[in-house]
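The instructor's notes for this session suggest beginning with a concrete chain rather than abstract definitions. Hand out the sequence below and ask the class to guess, before any prediction is shown, which regions might be ordered.
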Amino acid sequence: MTGELTRWESDGESLSKSLERDEIFEYLSEGFCRQCKSLLQTRIHSLVNQKVREREITPKSNNGDIDGSRFLNKQRQETRFTQMPDSSSWRKGSNSQSYELSNGRDSEEEQNEHVRVSQVVREKEFVYFERINGKPTNVLQGLELHTGVFNAEEQRKIVECVYDFQTMGQRGQLRERTYSEPRKWMRGKGRVTIQFGCCYNYAVDKNGNPPGIVRDEEVDPLPSLFKKMIKRMVRWHVLPPSCIPNSCIVNIYEEGDCIPPHIDHHDFVRPFCTVSFLTECNILFGSNLKILSPGEFWGPFSMPLPVGSVLVLNGNGADIAKHCVPAVPAKRISITFRKMDDSKMPYRFLLDPELDGINPLDYSLANHRKVHYNDKSTRREYEPVRARSNNSFVIEKDDFPPLGSSRAAMNGLRVSKDRSRQRKF
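After discussion, reveal the predicted structure:
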């Protein structure tokens, strides 16, 4: 009996090595619905990642035994939360990759986290007055810009994760309404979008659904890495624990792509935030933004968005002032995190326990360790910024839906020079 079992295990191992991962998954998931397939895929990926990490971080002594002391010391020194994109390891010929952001919990790592938080520069006082309903109004009230929230290495891992999801979308491995890459047919038209958590319509769709959250459509859930980003922003006092995002939209810009003037739909509660990657660009604000030509806009207030920064929109800055992103000078990625209004959630949406009960970092502990937080309030009033072009351009009702982009692969991460005015310690 033992010999038969050993022979069966050997044959099974040989068979598994001869099959592609895609073939194994297709066999195991035959007859499953889309949701069950996605759940099985996620569980298998987690198991594969765990085994890969164990092999990578478990050193051996000369006699082949695990060196316990070295292993424990390495575990103490490394703070990890690791997650594969929900299908990337199943691409034929791909290598398993992990995406990590440090999130310390022991005393040493927690102290390092306090130091990181102390280095975040927070600009919270933006001022530009316009006459609204006959009264002078600061239309920028409620805007905050947090720079230094994600460092260069963390940005690289997040960008790699986004590109993996883009590849999955191009291969049809994401839900239909998750990924959008329409044809680029003119300048300013070409933004790739990836939606997680809910399906959002920018305009009336072919089924007659109005702008807003489409409650009877499903998209893929928030990836684990994005949930780690949310935890970081709440823990580091960028977002309030009373408004934890449960959806997001990824925008992938090629050079010349843009976002026209708009106010975010009130199916999403305030505040919400946008994280910027790859290239610094400007965002315009004002109650009366003007379209000059394809991808070129005019507005009274322009704010630079450094790479790795988080722009929080609340108050007048979210509800009175419109905002837009003119044609970007180079490839750019942004991730906008938003919390859905409870009454507007998709019918089959399930709350994620991972995003429940996130507690902000205790400032008193930082003060005890002589770490000081910088709330850098900057009162800035900008002159109008005008883009020059001779072309005429009229915005149509369908100008704001997700727009396509080229499918060129990433040739290398381009991170613009960090221009944040961060204090040196």
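Then share the key points. Residues 191 and 403 are 4 Å apart (CA to CA). Confidence is low (pLDDT under 50) at residues 56-97, 366-425.
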